[in-house]
Design goal:
single chain; alpha+beta
Length: 247
Amino acid sequence: MNIFKSIVIIIIFFNKFNFAYAKETYFDLSENKIKINTNFTGKEIIIFGILEDNKETILTIKGPLKNSKIQKKERRFGFWFNTKHITYENIPSSFFIAASSKIENILPISTLIKEELSFDYVLENKISNRNFISNDSQNIWKKNFVRLKKNKNFFKEYEIKNINDKLFQTRVFFPPNSIPGQYIVSVYQINNNIITERDDKMIIIEKSGIGSKIYNFAHNHSAAYGLFTIIFAIISGLLAATLFRRS
């Protein structure tokens, strides 16, 4: 009987331990769907959640992954040409981040690279193609890539607002040129430079109205859409030529 009680106590103990270790941090979104129409001027989403005692918080939003190219112009024979380019693979189309403290002080560089939790490291080991060999530091290309993304508001750092040491709140603005797709919202809790909890939610951005039908048709039937575009261009050209001759 005593052995049975001991086994039960051990099982209960380990179940409690595993539950505590696997606990997810709580947060929520003011909205989880954004509709893009012809009058879309951007959208602000509020993210809020519970602060954990003696823990740091990091929040990220990453848009659909894309291959992204950056090019360099050089002057040749008195003209400017795109002579060099680098393509990075599987880069978030949008990358928003907020942290309760300076992120380099919260986590080691190895974790920042692995989890892609910094503008400085999101391009690490992501080069898929380049048309030149150079001894120049890749950091220059990475900094220019991030700078261009920031200028278009695709990469942006936000503030985590502490409310009475109990709640956090972050306001994130999705610009008008945000691409449709799934945006992953992640909140991390960190203790002693280690991620202890993480939770993910999703924001869906989609086109609405006639723009939605054209967008879906173009992506689901790209060959037919291309053929239709060519035919439409030919008909438009013939119509314009006919009207010009008559006038």
